[in-house]
Automatic annotation (TrEMBL):
SUPFAM superfamilies (alphabetical): Ribosomal protein S18
Record-level GO cellular component terms: cytosolic small ribosomal subunit
Sequence intervals crossing the membrane: none
Family annotation (InterPro entries): Ribosomal_bS18 (IPR001648), Ribosomal_bS18_sf (IPR036870)
Alphabetical list of Pfam families matching this protein: Ribosomal_S18
Protein name: Small ribosomal subunit protein bS18
GO BP annotations listed: translation
Alphabetized GO MF terms: small ribosomal subunit rRNA binding; structural constituent of ribosome
Job description of the protein: Binds as a heterodimer with protein bS6 to the central domain of the 16S rRNA, where it helps stabilize the platform of the 30S subunit.
Complexes and interactors: Part of the 30S ribosomal subunit. Forms a tight heterodimer with protein bS6.
Amino acid sequence: MAEKRKYARKYCRYTEAKIEFIDYKDTQLLKYCLSERFKIMPRRLTGTSKRYQEMVEKAIKRARHAALIPYIVDRENVAVNPFEIL
């Protein structure tokens, strides 16, 4: 019989920090919920609660619209840190 794996409990970092609102201009806070190709990470991978995941999604979409975060990443010309302003 196969033994059940025990995973480390995921926790919501926004709940622990007691953040009330996630602002789209705070790219350092949003970077945690983005993959290396700037896709929005799902709740099951980040451990973010439903309330904060909805706020994060809205903030990321607003930041993309304001050109603070890229929509897509060019694979040929990869930037080391696209959050830095040249």
